Structures are given as structure tokens and as C-alpha cells.
Please model this.
Amino acid sequence: MERNIMMAGFGGQGVMTMGKLLAEATCDATDLKVSFFPSYGAAMRGGTANCFVVISDDEIGAPVCYNVEDLIVMNGPSLHAFLKNVKPGGNLFINSTIVTDPIDRDDVNVISAPVTQMALDMGNDRALNVIMLGVYVGYTDAVPEEVIIKGIEHKFENKPKLIPPNVDAFKKGIEIGRAQKK
Model:
């Protein structure tokens, strides 16, 4: 088994944190091989940001793959730039609060979630990435949900008050992902 995931958006949406959380939690809590490869645009906040995560049973030959099973897009420019990279039959996860353009491919599974609006409704505007990670894990079962929960607990061990809202955000995403399975 090998999963190639690309996550893309703009700086400030937590794209790198989402990828790093998935990679580190999977590496720490499973015997799977994992790679994380970030790519930053010229600007910090508001510039482009994307990363690749590869999860595999076997050695990983390359940390970057431009023919991915799963693409997570958090904004419209990322959709237009990277939609072509999804394999036929692959999964496209979109932040439907921001990504409103029609999807011009009918050979991919589209999983949409209004994660920006959900984060705002929860009073935790920085949780959109954790919600989307929940949607991803809930839909794909790429890793057990407990793996990411342990990762959240580890990430926020020095800020324990942030653990419950982030676990809650992740679980809300899990529900959306599971509901959209076919």
C-alpha cells in the first residue's frame, strides 16, 4: 500500500501543519514508512504553500509525486494549479467555503467540506486544517483516527487547553468524511 497525498492552499491556512501532523502522527504511532516534503511560495502569509505526504508499507522511492491519489485544496488557485495531478479514480478534497469553481473532471471523487466556515462557527478560525484532516481520514481511512488524535495531543502537550477544541474539530471532520463515502 502506498498513498501519495498533496495538500495545497495559501500561507496561513495551516497546510504545512496539516501535512506535518499527518506525517509525524503516522510515523510515531504506526510501523508505516512516511515522508513529508514542504514547498513554500515567496510570501509567508498569503503566498502559496503545498506539501506532499507519502505513506507506505515499503520504502519510499521519492518524497514528491505529481500523480497523486489524494489532493486536498484549501483555495481556488490550488484547485486550478493541481487538479491535473490527481489520478483517475483519485480523491479531491475541497474547502467548499472558498473553492466554489466547478470541478471540470468527472473521473475523480469530490469530497467537499466548508471547513473555513466550520472553523469560524466553532470560534476557532485556525482549526480549518484540523477539520480538513478529519475529513481526509474519515473518507480514506488512510490511518486510524486515534493516530491523529495522539498526534494532536503530542503537538499541543505544552498548550493543553488547545487539545480538546482541536480534537473536537478533527472529529467533526471525521463525521463529514465518513458521510461522503460511497
Notes: The mean pLDDT is 93. DSSP finds six helices and six strands in the chain.
